[in-house]
């Protein structure tokens, strides 16, 4: 069972001031401090698109079998976790073969939609989780990867589109709690098919 808002709050308070996460050093981070106040960075001039990681499946780190962190898989899709981070759960849904979102045919799109709803429903059914945000960005790697971010119930600072930032800001919670929630999601996904791998 995910930590309660009170447990997260107490743990974070005990750690003192939160350090700035590494995203503040990314070149796409849009804010700077100017004259002592937060301000937008100047817009860079247009430049040609850069290749994304794994374009056309060449040297794609998301292709292949035996990838780390997979908690559930069927013949065509897998759900995995990354390194534990600040939110209670962050999951990624990917096709096993190399497709970007616009590449999916109607049948694959239908499967993608069903799995997206299923994951969101399962994560939102966990105790102490208020919402499961789902998003596909796709500017980094070409291989389709859909993000699911669990937002803790009653922790209203974490609402909305800044929740990925909070995922980087907050320290990870207890690893055994995290793994138990991962296992519960995998178990529930497997009741519809596929195999739980955690
Ligand atoms: Zn790939």
UniProtKB/TrEMBL annotation:
Query: What domain of life does the native source organism fall in?
Result: Bacteria
> Which InterPro entries does this entry report, sorted A to Z?
HIT-like_sf
User: What is the name attached to this protein's record?
Assistant: HIT domain-containing protein
Write down the species: Nocardioides turkmenicus
